[in-house]
Design goal:
The complex is a heterodimer. Chain A is α+β, with helices and mostly antiparallel strands. Chain A has six helices and six strands; from the N terminus they run ββαββαβαααβα. Chain A has helices spanning 50-57, 80-86, 103-112, 128-140, 156-169, 186-200; strands at residues 10-21, 24-35, 65-70, 73-74, 88-91, 174-177. Chain B has a domain at 38-260. Chain B has a two-stranded antiparallel sheet. Classes of the chains: A alpha+beta, B mainly alpha.
């Protein structure tokens, strides 16, 4: 799990994190480092605590013990929406999009979180750069053709791609994917793997 | 990853359908309807009631239809607006526009107070907590007899002339009264339409659609909910102020949970989450109530039956069903 590299190359580090739910100890004392620009996988059998660990890294849970450091900064216990602002994005194991919104609006709302969260007066149509960025992202994840459809009408593979697109919309420096190819056909899996490799490439 | 900014593809400009035209001009169209409404309504007093309850439901619908939280305590926001406006006039003799401003502030402040206490709960718990807090507000105003008149209601809100920029409008004349109140309702249409079309409007819908995803995208769900609830309080406070001016009295029943229930029924009848649904719902509910109560004292039975039929067969509400038919 640990990758070698100079300390400045470490983007994310956990120091002895643990998580208990009531009396149940789900995770105990995990220390790990994740290198910038690398693809790191966390593997293990069912019930090993992968998802719990993932939720600690993405800020969905705060650890019961230990600390999480992102780019050298202690982020332990910060609310989850702050994680997104810092550049940590996650995709969900079970597809988690805005079902009634169009594919394009899903991405656009994801992008908007970095630009405008509380402006209630200017028309959002004025933020035309967001629509352009959304279109570019839709093309990147292969959903350009489906941009006008509501998210709930997309096929499973397309929803997974939208899930990645939404994670990318927060312009992450760290992208956390929870079982990105779960339930996919071999063909869809290959497309997804190509996309992930492309994203990890520097530049 | 940085190359995602390049505008690679562009959508071809789709022809603007009448439906999209109607959506982008929803505030103007709604205003036109409100302006011609008394010409087709036989009873102007009823038309005024429809306006006020429609505005109340408009504010309620922001929380219920757009944010997706069922509040059962909106009587407190409506009633606080009415009492603040009424007290400003009856006890302090303040001019009408100051009184209305105080009513709006009262609605905003009460929404902030109830919101802070209730906003972390969900679903049925949110409904119960808002209802309980609204009952607290009821007893507070009920006990403060010196200020509110308690059981007898707050009397002495006598506004006979509305002096608007030197223009003296006779508030006793029903039609003039209608158009004075309509001016505030129309202003609310434009403000609400702007809020819904703003970036924050998109956040409100995102939170309703998927709270977990909204949080992962970087939105503070709790704060978004609280701000929306407070905004709703502003519209409801304005509706309450207008109600106080219209009735010249604030009855204590305005804070009763009946009022909270009526606004839920109006929003459901009209169509939750639609822009003009609350107005349609108010018109349907109050017309029905008026027509049936002439005919029988058991009007609630009939109105209740109609309501149940609507919820069972037209869950999108009257307006919601109509626009889903018209959607291309």
């Amino acid at each position: 799990m640990t990758s070698a590299g100079a300390p400045s190359q470490v983007i994310l580090r956990t120091k002895g994190v643990g998580k208990t739910f009531g009396k149940f100890r789900a995770l105990n004392d995990i220390s790990a480092e994740f290198t910038k620009g690398a693809i790191t996988s966390i593997i293990g059998p069912n019930g090993a605590g992968k998802s719990t660990y993932f939720n600690l890294l993405s800020g969905a849970f705060s650890p019961s013990s230990g600390s999480v450091e992102f780019e050298g900064r202690d982020v332990t216990g910060l609310p989850q929406h702050r994680f997104a602002h810092m550049g940590i994005a996650k995709s969900f194991q079970i597809t988690n999009v805005f079902p009634q919104l169009t594919t394009r609006e899903n991405i656009r709302v994801g992008l908007q979180a970095l630009v405008s969260r509380y402006d209630m007066w200017r028309p959002r149509a004025r933020l035309s750069e967001l629509t352009e960025q959304a279109d570019a992202l839709l093309a990147l994840v292969g959903l350009w053709e489906s941009r006008g459809r509501t998210a709930k009408t997309l096929a499973h593979g397309e929803q997974r791609a939208l899930e990645i697109g939404m994670a990318l919309a927060s312009r992450p420096r760290l992208l956390l994917l929870d079982e990105p190819t779960a339930g996919m056909s071999p063909e869809e899996t290959r497309v997804m793997m190509d996309l992930i490799v492309k994203l990890a490439r520097p530049g | 990853m940085n190359d995602i900014t390049q505008p690679t593809l562009r959508a071809q400009a789709a022809p603007v359908s009448w439906f999209q035209f109607a959506i982008s001009h929803r505030a103007s169209i709604a205003s036109l309807v409100v302006l011609v409404f008394p010409l087709v309504m036989p009873f102007t007093a009823l038309a005024v009631n429809i306006l006020i309850y429609g505005l109340f439901a408009l504010g309620f619908n922001l929380v219920y239809g757009y944010l997706g939280l069922l509040s059962f305590g909106h009587a407190a926001l409506f009633g606080t607006g009415a009492y603040f406006c009424g007290i400003a006039i009856a006890h302090f003799g303040l001019p009408w526009f100051v009184a209305i401003a105080l009513g709006v502030l009262g609605g905003l402040a009460m929404a902030a107070l109830i919101g802070v206490l209730a906003i972390r709960t969900r679903g049925i718990y949110f409904a119960m907590v808002t209802m309980a807090l609204s009952q607290c507000v009821y007893y507070l105003f009920y006990q403060a007899v010196d200020w509110t008149g308690g059981e007898n209601g707050l009397r002495g809100i006598n506004v006979r002339v509305i002096d608007a920029f030197g223009l003296k409008l006779d508030f006793i004349n029903p039609l003039t009264r209608y158009y004075v109140i309509a001016a505030f309702v129309i202003a609310s249409f434009f403000v609400l339409s702007r809020i819904l079309a703003s970036p924050f409007g998109a956040v409100i819908e995102a939170v309703r659609e998927n709270e977990t995803r909204a949080r992962a995208s970087g939105y503070d769900v709790t704060l978004t909910r609280l701000i929306t609830f407070v905004l709703s309080g502003g519209f409801c406070g304005l509706a309450g102020s207008l109600q106080a001016l219209h009735l010249s009295i604030v009855p204590i029943e305005i804070l009763h949970y009946d009022t909270s229930g009526i606004v839920v029924m109006i929003a459901l009848l009209g169509g939750m989450g639609t822009f003009f649904g609350p107005m349609v719902g108010a018109a349907a509910f109050l017309l029905l109530e008026n027509l049936v109560s002439v005919w029988t004292v058991h009007w609630q039975l009939i109105v209740g039956a109609v309501f149940m039929i609507c919820v069972l067969f037209f869950p999108a509400g009257i307006w919601g069903t109509l626009i889903s038919r018209g959607k291309p």
